[in-house]
């Protein structure tokens, strides 16, 4: 590794540990994302600007599919080296795949022609019981950050300082960290008490932070705290949120009653489809440069008529090392149109997304809670279990149901206990129970958490 690369790696890994005062000075100086994220980011931002109103992604789709058929064992064996020449041929010839197909033969989906040193391993959240492991390019951040910044610009974001309240656990002696490279003031996403909300508010107001990046459920709780205490929110421009379903009562409080833009986006760990609200509506624009989007009904037919409802299916554009072709995400949405009537962009427009995460809560004994999204394991533990589910019948008690894989060892149990003890209050009782299979609804749908604690806490009219 070259000296410059070593310095960059050190900065990325250690910069939040530098003194707060020093990092706050760097935060003020760092106003150009091109310098931070590099030439790949700059080129992709230019592509997004050039093709803002329309982008024909069918040629990119066909290139991605044909490369996969030529270079990836699973697709080569399935389609025999056939070249797909049109969108119609793609829809009539290429079959859908799902997580189970990849879990059944992971190695068959890896492209042997790429340099695996340029890739890193990730996992999905395991919301359907067993998580999926996959690889993606290490430099994919250029596409991710360029697209996310483009989405957030619709809410007024211009590489602005963000308060981040998501899945970071901080030492109890620190109320926040500063990452001047990404322009983030990072708070503890597991310390959601009134006392800590007061610290967050005082810090956000003192720094005049206009954008708060968090889960929708956290946005709602923090907004409720501010409204209940009569706090000034005039300096807050928007909540930037994703990773959970959105409920009408959340939107009503934040956007209608408090006048803060509740800007939401949809994405998933597999990174096939990314969509964000239009600047002027709460409809999602599906970004055509990011991946190929389809909405498919229960008969396997592509939904083309406005008002149609179906499952979101995605195809990779930016992961030649492990391309997913016509991958069923398990998420659902309603098609609005093939262009936005509000801003004029020609792209798929959707609404009423029903995702796998629903913001379910795990309660500590004192009534504070952590969402199942924040409890998500993104580490090596997912590689040694075949499924996980939560059971909570009383506040302050959580049972973690685990389906062990053959690779599971006794020390993995200790790691699981440490993970959940770190996320929850010290007095919360965590029990790991091993089962042969996980519970499902009568219709076969997986339930991530079996929770009888908060059945009456949400308004009955809440909808997604």
Give your account of this protein's structure.
With 464 residues, this protein is an alpha/beta fold. The protein has a domain at 365-451: GMP Synthetase, Chain A, domain 3 (2-Layer Sandwich). It contains twelve helices and 20 strands. α4 (58-71) packs across α5. Mean pLDDT is 89; it is low at 455-464.
Q: What tags apply to this protein structure?
A:
4-stranded mixed beta sheet, GMP Synthetase, Chain A, domain 3, 464 residues, alpha/beta, 20 strands, 12 helices
**Helix share of residues?**
25-40%
Shape: globular
Number of helices: 12
Low-pLDDT residue intervals, each spanning 5 or more residues: 455-464
Number of strands: 20
> What percentage of amino acids are in beta strands?
15-25%
Structural class estimated from helices and strands:
alpha/beta
Distance between the termini: 48 Å
CATH homologous superfamily grouping of the domain at 365-451 = ANL, C-terminal domain
CATH architecture of the domain at 365-451: 2-Layer Sandwich
Q: What is the average of the pLDDT values?
A: 89
Strand order of the largest sheet: 4-5-3-6-7-8-9-10-14-13-12-11
Radius of gyration using CA atoms only = 22 Å
Q: What is the CATH domain class of the domain at 365-451?
A: Alpha Beta
CATH topology of the domain at 365-451, anyone?
A: GMP Synthetase, Chain A, domain 3
Largest sheet: 12 strands, mixed
